[in-house]
Amino acid sequence: MSLRGVLRAMPTMLRVGFAESVAYRAEMFVWVLSTTMPLVNMVLWMAVAKHSPVGPYGQAEFVSYFLATFAVRQLTSAWAAWIINWEVKQGTLAMRLLRPISPLWAYMFDNIAGFPLRLVVAVPVMVLSVVLVGADKALPQHAWQWGLFLVAVLGGWAITFLANVAMGALSLFTDSSQKTMEVWMVLFFVCSGYMYPVELLPDGLRAVINWLPFRYQMGLPVELMTGAHDLPTALGLLARQWAWVLGMGTLALGIWKYGVRRFAAFGG
Question: Fewer CB under 10 Å: which end of the chain, C or N?
């Protein structure tokens, strides 16, 4: 289907995706509860910084960082890998492939349609952060900072979604790629800034992490939300993030393209 056709179908797919999100709101609430690790880390790091700051982070900075982490996690999450695995295993992917629009568009709009409900969770957390530590530590202070933050959130979500597609498409070769996705999630927890600020790591390790995609999924949007970077540094990190979006998109589309051919061979 052409891009024009996709744009015409987009409102319908968004409505269907939002209706599904509302219908399964209890499942979403359980998922939100499973992402509360930043709140646990916040308490632990506040205890560590009780008597003296840890690097540039005092107690207030840890509160703003981990509440921002919780909020950004709601906005940049994706679950396409699990859906693709399930549909490949059940054979229901064949039904999607018969439709005139690529399943990848359906996965994407299904994910985007859940944003309003996720904002219902994220916005109160941002407000709580402002109340606890003040707007100067909790939110961007200038228009350019807000702009770069929104671009970073979009880029973080794009890397996460495309990585999900790439991992999910591997199931077209191996029947199930959930273990691969679990390994990816472990690396994400360690390298993304989800458990601790990347800035606290030794220089050598941070230099390695700067070349990996995980920081750009989570750490960069959080750092821009809390005003951790000046404009030149932020632009440099955003350039690396979108280079990863391009690279991950190419990888995901390549695996999907060849995997679907294999799936068609089995189906035939």
Answer: C
DSSP letters, 15-41, are HHHHHHHHHTHHHHHHHHHTT-HHHHH
d(CA 32, CA 7): 30
Q: Which amino acid is at 224?
A: L
Share of the chain above pLDDT 70, in %: 98
58, with CB counted inside 10 A (0-12, 13-18, 19+), is: middle
**How far from the centroid of its chain's Cα atoms is residue 135's Cα?**
24
Dihedral class, residue 229 (left if φ above 0, else alpha if ψ from -120 to 50, else beta): beta
Q: Cα–Cα distance between 132 and 138 in angstroms, integer?
A: 9
Strand (E) or helix (H) holding 68: helix 59-76
> Which among 185, 157, 167, 182 is positioned nearest to 85, based on CA atoms?
167
Give how far Cα 81 sits from Cα of 8, 30, 47, 93, 182, Å.
26, 19, 37, 13, 10
Question: With the C-alpha atoms ordered 139, 37, 62, 230, is the resulting torsion angle positive or negative?
Answer: negative
pLDDT at 89: 86
User: Would you say 42 and 60 are in contact if contact means Cβ atoms under 8 Å apart?
Assistant: no
